[in-house]
User: What shape does this take?
Amino acid sequence: MKKNIFLLLCVTILFPIVNCQNKINAVDVFKMYLFLNKRTFKSDRSIVKNDSTYLHFSDFLYLSLDTLQVYNSIKGAYYNEFDFYKLSQFGIHYKDNSTYNKFHVEFGFLGYYILCINNKTGICYRLAGFDVNDFYDFLFDFQSIYLQNNMRKVSKNTFFKKFKVENLNFLCIYKGLKKQKKKTPICLFKNEEPMSWW
Assistant: This one.
């Protein structure tokens, strides 16, 4: 009896600790991608991107992320494996004015960044505002997970019709990446690019 109580107590105490270690910190992931997305540092173009520069960048930036709503009507889709986060210009705060001048994050015309995190594998997908868009990787992984769990494929058309996330237009992103038109669709605008009017 004492062994059972001891075992139950250990499981009760250790499970949350082990479970917490597997949770991905979206704010830290966002900071890393924002740092890597920066082209240059406005105050001093000789600043090199390295781990110590990242630590300064990360320490002086406070982020408040919005979790985006997912609308899914694909039967058997395990969409809860994916969390979608949005950073708007109102969700970023700098430690002081000198930090703002040194580490300012551009929000361009689009005005926000969106990142998706697979909370089981830890894989991250940049879906809006960044210099790179990882939508093809996200779609491939979504379809692979669906096939693995349901033993059948989900078509792209079904995905575009039945899987929606607020502030994202997957069909626009897909077509924009596929066609590589001269005129970039709004869904693929990069926040670090200077705003230009055609």
Q: What stands out?
A: The CA atoms of residues 14 and 70 lie 32 Å apart.
